[in-house]
TrEMBL record, chains A, B:
Pfam families recorded: TP_methylase (PF00590)
Organism, scientific name: Pseudoduganella lurida
EC number in record: 2.1.1.107
Family: Belongs to the precorrin methyltransferase family.
Protein's UniProt keywords contain S-adenosyl-L-methionine: yes
Annotated protein name in UniProt: uroporphyrinogen-III C-methyltransferase
Organism classification: Bacteria, Pseudomonadati, Pseudomonadota, Betaproteobacteria, Burkholderiales
Every Tetrapyrrole methylase domain range: 6-213
Keyword Transferase assigned: yes
Length: 239, 239
């Protein structure tokens, strides 16, 4: 056992066991210990052939002390095990608090490698067969989250791209829709709302911006909201 | 052999053979025919155990008739083979002309499934160990391309997100930098320029927005430019 192990920040992808990368799957099989998020599915953990499994899940709303605890756990694990995997839902570098974990590991002199994952937005686009960009219609897409409460006047926080993808976009997406309408976006702008992408309980709903502004009937599970003219259904597209 | 086969639009990821998804790798192994882009690497094609391999690469600048030819080839292949894979660099739903291929296949009554891939931006973030979002600094990121020539006055085309990622961003990124400076962005805004992400000849350069506006020393290969305050190097970050 080496004095200090190596840590791999690995993206698990959206949930389905076979939507992790080949490299990520190999690292899970070889890992001595895997620290995993609440968003990682049980079937994904079956790929960990020999690892000690440590849940470090946080759900939105818990205080940030939890992140400091995870940072400390990562450093501790790297001092005990040769191959440490930190498995994160989606991609580690998008909305994954990777900066804090990288900073803590680097300060402790621990070697880190990042393995990308399928971020929910592209998995959602695949599931809905709805490209995020479209020639002549959409050549830019933004991925964003909102920490503002509905009703707050924060128009500047909505990106100016052709396609908008709001992560963790339940109540927050309703506020976004209200602001976009106030900014003059077409009420008929097509919207896709996706839950539990790539999982057995996946749900995909097609609505309009005006409908989104009135509320969402999808309170459970991680919700992703995609909107813009590129979200229009094709003439012969299967639902 | 069925009357009509099924087509899988599969994301190859950034190039490294093990950065395709497990599902994508399995489909390549099972495919009867694989139509692949110019951006797909030879080592990726080694995963095609039995398939007829058809290059359908287009490079930027070729006329769009090439896309119509690819659409027709896909329909023809689905009438000849049971399992057809259309293998695209990165992710099929981001800057991949997927809308045109899906429309053509659906019009011909052919079943299509999309398998997401690692888009270059997240592979680049992983390679540089540089998260695209960062708590308190960047909660939005845009992926975009520019079809405008340098010097054109098209300020509206630059998204308003915290982090900007310009795909195919060689000369175009220089124009973007000039426009951002004109809009008042800090000249010291950190910029990462990445070439051939995940491949043996990968190159990563750290510059500033002011330096980018003066030009790029990276004329070859697909160039990705990432910029914004979240691109600042950490104190103990390895280069």
């Amino acid at each position: 056992m080496p004095a200090v192990g190596k840590v791999f920040l690995v993206g698990a992808g959206p949930g389905a066991r076979d939507l992790i990368t080949v490299r990520g799957a190999r690292l899970l099989g070889e890992a001595d210990v895997v620290l995993y998020d609440a968003l990682v599915t049980p079937e994904m953990l079956e790929l960990c052939a020999q690892a000690v499994l440590i849940p470090v899940g946080k759900r939105a709303g818990q205080r940030s002390a939890a992140q400091e605890h995870i940072n400390a756990q990562l450093v501790d694990c790297a001092r005990q095990y040769a191959r440490v995997v930190r498995l994160k839902g989606g991609d580690p570098m998008l909305f994954g608090r990777a900066d804090e974990e990288l900073t803590a590991l680097e300060a402790a002199g621990i070697d880190v490698e990042v393995v990308p994952g399928i971020t929910t937005a592209v998995a959602a686009a695949a599931a809905a067969r709805q490209p995020l960009t479209k020639r002549g219609v959409a050549r830019s897409v933004a991925f964003f989250t909102s920490s503002t409460a509905p009703g707050e006047d924060d128009l500047a926080a909505i990106p100016s791209t052709d396609t908008l993808v709001q992560y963790m976009g339940g109540r927050e997406a309703i506020a976004t829709a209200q602001r976009l309408l106030a900014q003059g976006r077409r009420p008929e702008t097509p919207v896709l709302v996706l839950e539990n992408v790539s999982r057995p309980d996946e749900r995909i709903a097609r609505i309009t911006l005006a409908q989104l502004a009135l509320g969402l009937d999808t309170p459970h599970g991680p919700v992703l909201v995609m909107l813009g003219e590129a979200m229009a259904a094709r003439a012969q597209q299967p639902t």
